[in-house]
Specification:
The complex is a heterodimer of chains A (84) and B (367).
Chain A: E1 4-8, H1 11-23, E2 29-32, E3 44-48, H2 50-62, E4 69-73, E5 79-81
Antiparallel strand pairs in A: 1-3, 1-4, 2-3, 4-5
Chain B: E1 2-3, H1 15-27, H2 37-56, E2 64-67, H3 70-81, E3 87-91, H4 96-104, E4 108-112, H5 119-129, E5 134-140, H6 152-162, E6 165-169, H7 181-184, E7 188-192, E8 204-208, H8 244-259, H9 262-283, E9 286-288, E10 296-300, H10 306-315, E11 318-319, E12 321-323, H11 328-334, E13 341-345, H12 352-366
Parallel strand pairs in B: 1-11, 3-4, 3-5, 5-6, 6-7
Antiparallel strand pairs in B: 2-8, 7-8, 9-10, 10-13, 12-13
Classes of the chains: A alpha+beta (84), B alpha/beta (367).
């Protein structure tokens, strides 16, 4: 289950992040981020499994394209800030 | 028709370009606006083109902004860097897409002049003209009138060394010669999508080494709660609905360009143009040619108005462009102002027979 949401400012940043994660052999999915985790209105979220999140975030930081925020979606649908 | 006006637009496109445009019109909605499959298809299409351009032109995908043409990109770049009264050094071969925005800003323009096709002399002339007071340098990579290749690597190194911002007009070079945003440390590089990149008309790219000021304000599908334009690329320059069919076609054009052996293409084009230049000169034409030339050949028939001559060639099925080519400064530099020249320009789709037909027709009409 993709329960970690890496939020990006724009679709292009999200797509670059998806390409980075794909090159690592990790699975992810890019989607519009829900309003409650989009600080300034529309944004994009790269969703992936919690077990992959740490490596993905590290790689994105190294690539100069870190997410603006990271969220964990709980089974009840609520979001909480998350640190990998 | 024998098409020899590729410097205006590459009318002859790879079939994949037309297919990509049609497919996008049938399958793509607006990118960055929705989460449904047609919006996602548009997002993929746009990103693939952006990423391919980034790979070809030595930058990150985010540095690649889609424009409607090179002129739009040059306007953005110039309006970002130049304030009224600023000293701006330009080559004496610039197009009106550079000189008119500078005139509009009332910039103190310093045109650099050197003999056509004398690369070293151009580099030296720029070195003399670029002073500590220079706000910006704007330089074409290849003259759209004469095909003269300017020593852009040397000019870029000069600008980087002196801390002067550089804008490169790669309109005639992109797709044929190396274009490198990062290696040149350029502030901006502008290019059309519909010339050497074989995309549809209405497409262009601006590569951004600096944060630009937008010309267009509006929705970007990002940070929508804010009334200010995003402070990040490419969104800062891409307000409004994207030209997805055009970008899809441009992506197919870039794929075609990527498949070419550029050294061979350049050599083949030079062979064709050199042969045509020799033949036209032998007939009695005035011809502008030299060692560092790419894609374009200017000539004149003595005593004949270039525009009238081009009309007669057109009547024989040969498409040329004549006059000032929107570059009066280039003609002043070369001494061909105000009448201008006749221009034959080629692409990788041009066949040697096309140039032979040009020479044959010139002979039939005038010699």
């Amino acid at each position: 289950m993709y329960d970690v949401y890496l939020v990006f400012r724009s679709v292009t940043h999200g797509q670059s992040a998806a390409a980075t994660v794909q090159r690592m052999g990790l699975r992810s999915s890019l989607r519009r981020s829900p309003a409650q985790i989009s600080a300034a209105g529309c944004a994009y979220a790269l969703t992936l499994r919690r077990s992959d999140a740490y490596a993905a975030v590290e790689a994105l930081r190294r690539a100069g394209n870190p997410p603006t925020s990271i969220w964990l979606r709980e089974p009840d649908g609520r979001f909480g800030r998350w640190e990998p | 028709m024998i098409y020899l006006d590729s410097a205006a637009t590459t009318f002859l496109k790879p079939p994949s370009v037309c297919r990509a445009v049609g497919k996008a019109m049938q399958t793509c909605a607006s990118p960055g606006r929705g989460g449904y499959p047609a919006a996602q298809a548009a997002e993929r299409t746009v990103y693939q083109t952006r990423a391919m351009a980034a790979e070809l032109f030595d930058c990150a995908p985010e540095d690649v902004c889609f424009t409607s043409c090179a002129t739009e990109g040059l306007n953005i770049a110039i309006r970002t860097l130049v304030r009224p009264g600023d000293r701006v050094v330009i080559s004496g071969l610039e197009h009106n897409a550079v000189t008119r925005p500078l005139h509009n800003l009332d910039a103190a323009v310093v045109p650099v002049r050197a003999p056509l096709f004398a690369g070293k002399a151009w580099a030296e002339a720029f070195s003399e003209a670029v002073t500590p007071e220079t706000a910006c340098v704007v330089c074409t990579q290849v003259s759209n009138v004469f095909g003269a290749v300017l020593p852009i690597e040397e000019i870029a190194a000069l600008c980087a060394g002196r801390g002067v911002a550089l804008i490169v007009d790669a309109s005639q070079a992109a797709g044929l010669l190396p274009v490198r945003l990062r290696a040149w440390q350029a502030a901006f590089v502008a290019m059309p999508g519909h010339k050497g990149l074989f995309g549809p008309q209405g497409t262009g790219l601006l590569l951004c080494g600096r944060m630009p000021e937008p010309l267009r304000f509006g929705g970007t599908g990002s940070q929508s709660a804010s009334q200010a334009m995003p402070e990040f690329l490419p969104d800062r320059l891409e307000a409004g609905t994207a030209n997805v069919p055009g970008i899809a076609g441009l992506g197919a054009g870039l794929e075609y360009v990527r498949s070419l052996d550029h050294t061979r293409v350049l050599a083949a084009e030079r062979r064709m143009l050199r042969r045509a230049a020799e033949d036209l000169r032998r007939l009695g034409s005035e011809v502008w040619t030299g060692p560092d030339q790419a894609g374009v050949l200017s000539f004149r028939i003595p005593g004949v108005d270039p525009v009238e001559a081009a009309a007669r060639f057109a009547a024989r099925g040969i498409a040329l462009r004549a006059g000032l080519h929107c570059a009066p400064l280039a003609h002043q530099t070369a001494g061909t102002f105000p009448d201008g020249t006749i221009r034959a320009s080629v692409s990788s789709m041009t066949q040697p027979e096309d140039l032979l037909a040009l020479v044959r027709t010139a002979k039939q009409l005038y010699f």
